[in-house]
Structure formats: structure tokens, C-alpha cells
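Hi team, as promised in this morning's meeting, here are the two structures we talked about. I've kept the exact order from the run log so nobody has to guess. The first one is mostly here for context; it's the second one we should focus on when we meet again. Sequence first, then the predicted C-alpha cells.
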Amino acid sequence: MSSTDTHSGGQHATAEVVIAEVVARQIEAMILDGRLGAGERLPAERTLCRSLKVSRNTLREALKDLRGRGVIQTRRGSGTFVAGLQMLQVQPSTALQNLLQNHPQTLAGLIEVRRLLEGEAAYQAARRAGDEDLQALQRAYREVVAPPSPGDSSAARAQRDIRFHRAIYSAAHNPILLLALNAIRDLMMSFIFDTTDRLYTRPGAWRQLRTQHRRIYRAIEKRDAPAARRAAGAHIDAVAEALNRRPEH
């Protein structure tokens, strides 16, 4: 092989790599703008090649890059999927999390951030939710408003609460909101567990939480974005009041 052939082959390989990187960014854009959701299966290779106008080899290089960075996962016999939220989440270090938990002012800051996120998520969910989003939200809503069963733990109730709010974030079709929720989820859950008597077992607390969740859900279901934002804000304000209330002896 001549030096000219070697040079031309190297240029071709470099061009293929560059094209694969562009394709990887295009797929990432599909995830970021909600066309592909967390945990969703990617279209078949043939469909992707046609829509992205690339060869199968280029597409496979792009998928290899995304897989290596944890953006997608391949399940044998099932296909390739966008990584679930547990893989995409931005998680603070344990040291930072412990530091934040040991400072009282953290709760106030956390509530402020959550109020902003919850209000925006509910607002956008009312505007953007599709039929599948509404079905998922309805399932989560029915779980969170179901009467507590004997032996039901506060931790289990808190998990159902988180699932309901995650369904709202998902229906908003803004993956940055989902990442933000996951970034503060563990911190928020630690506060909820630490104050479980005030938030979940206080007389009348469950009925109040059920009413708040119902108002959020109904507003999203009716596509009333301003009402959804108000209901979400009122819910977070009520949670903040419960968390700040001194335990009764």
C-alpha cells in the first residue's frame, strides 16, 4: 500500500469518527428535547439510519460512544434503551450530602429550590403531557392517595409520594427537571424520614396531603397550567410548614 493510500485511509477513518460523534450528539438532542424519554427503547437501527441519514456502521459507532458514557444501555434480547433515571441522575457526594444534612439552613434552601422545580414541572406537564404521560400520572396518583394500609411504613408512603412527583416531572418533557429532581431527591427523602411523625403520622396529615395531590393532578388533567403551578406551590408550602413545625409532646 502506498503512502497516499494510507493517508487517504486515515482521513476516511477520521471522517467516520467525526460523523459518528455528530450522530451521537443528535441522539442526545432527541433525549434532551423529550423525543426519547428515560428508560425508553430506541427505534430499530434501520429506522434510525433512515431518519439520521447515516450508514449502519456510523450509527453503531455513535451508539457505542453513547453506551460507553452510560447514556444508553443494551439489553440482550430486548434492544437498546435510554438509561433510566437512576443512571442519568446527578448525585452529590456522600460527604457533601452529610454536610448539607447537618446544617439547618439547608432545609430552607431545599424547600426554595423544590418550590421552583415543582411549580414549573406541574405547569409544563399541564401543557405538554401526552396520553401515556397522563395514564402514568393517574397510576401514580391513585397510589399516593390510597388510604394507608395496616403496617404501611412512612418510608413506603414517602416513596409513593416521590413516584407521583416524578411522574409529573416526566410529563413535563424537560429532562433537566428530571435530573434536578434526582439531584435533590435523596437529600429531600432524608429530611422526610427524619421528620416522618410531623409529615405523615400527624393527625389529619394524610387527608391534607391527599387533597393537595388531588388539586395538582386535576389541574394537570384539565390542562390548566397556572392552576397546576399554584397547586404545586401550595403543596410545597404545606410540606415546609409541616417540616418546620416543632414536634408535639
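And here is the second protein, the one for discussion:
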Amino acid sequence: MDGFKFFERLSPEVAKAAADEARRLGRSVIAHSVDIFSAVDAGYTSVEHSWAVMFTTIRDAKKKSEVDMERMTGKVGTVEAHTFMEPDLFDPIIKAMVEKDIHWSPAWATQFRALSPRAPEMKKRELAMLKNPRLRYLPAYNVESVEGYFGGFEKMTPEKRAQLTSAYQMVQDFARRYVAAGGKIHSGSDPGSLLPAYGVHAEFELMIDAGLNPLLAIQSASLNVAHAWGKDKDYGSVEKAGALRKGK
């Protein structure tokens, strides 16, 4: 076992104790969080999901709890929950993360790709792939999931779509600012409405949409991840002599 994954329901005291034990064992902690400041204090290696940033920015504890419960019970979708972000807290969050070298994986493709300028192309590509006879071993629900995902956004009113697009743009802004400050970003597809392996490619495309450069996108699925897992001596980059390190 190379590391631990923690979920967001841990108390700060338990999270810190668990992270301390992970470090004692020389293992990384890749975790969900609704309070990145607590994650930094606990000593996590990486925080997962754009919604970790969203929840951290909500100052009002009651409001945060309400949004959390509504999201968990399906009353509010994950994309819509991002409309509650308070971007004036972006800089303090980024400063805390970068000072302690806390990585971040937005895992945004499964949620936001329907709001990308590439959405029509992505939908066409995904359905063509899923309907390929050579991939008939894949469960039928994958096609239904993709059709339902894109269809839901296509049926939205212009006003609703504009609201969600604004939320997506805030996530993109955080990503640009985080990377510009020296933060290390990861590509994690978080398969929900898309296939895992393909999802990494979708993550790359959304990074480019956000204005991040292609090299950084590649590093988000190679060097940065290897560094987070403490494997960067063997994985994630090319040797100076030109020989590809094993596994990459």
C-alpha cells in the first residue's frame, strides 16, 4: 500500500492523528475535504475535487452545512453547489496550500465538461467510443449516463446555464491562480458520467480550456502525481539521457 485516502467526515483531530500516523509509516494522504485549511493543518499530501475549494470558501458554517447536506441528498447538484463559492477567499487558500506543498486534483471533467466549448465534440466522441462494437463488453449504462449528462445541460434554460458557467469559470480562475502561485495540480477523472481512462484525456482538455499549458497538463498525470505518492525517483519524468523512466 502506497498511501491512504481519507474522506471529508473526519474531525480535525482525527484527521491530524491519522495523517501523523501515515507520515510515520512514510505514506501519502490523498483526501477529500470540506475545509482545506484543516487539511493543511493535518498535513495532507493532496486535496481532491473542486468542491473542496467551494466548501472552504463558504464562511457561514450553517450555510456550508446546508449546501453539504443538499448536495449529499441530491437536492442540489455538484455543479450548482459551486455557485455558492466566495472567490475572495481564493488567495488565502492558495497561500496555505502552496506554503505546505499541498497538491490539488479538481476532478472537473465528470462535472463540468458539458460547459466546455468542446462539449459537442466531447459528447460525439464519447458516444462513438461507447457504441463501438469492440467495446460491447462495457455496461449499457455508460451510454445512458453520457446521454443523460449532456442532455441535462442541453435542456437547461439560458439563465440556468449562465449561472453554472459562471461557477465553472470561478473554478478555472482558482486553478490558474493556484498553478501561478506554484501549486501542483493533478488529473483525476473521478468516473461518474465518463469512463476512467478516457476521463484523464477530458481532464487535459479542461486544463487547456482554463488556460493552463499542455506541458503542465501532462505533468498533472505524471510527475505531479508521482511526487505526491513519493515515487518521483522512478516514475513521472524522462531521464536526461532520453530514456523513459519505467512506467511512463
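Starting points for discussion:
The chain is about 55% helix and 5% strand.
The beta strands are 3-6, 28-31, 46-48, 103-105.
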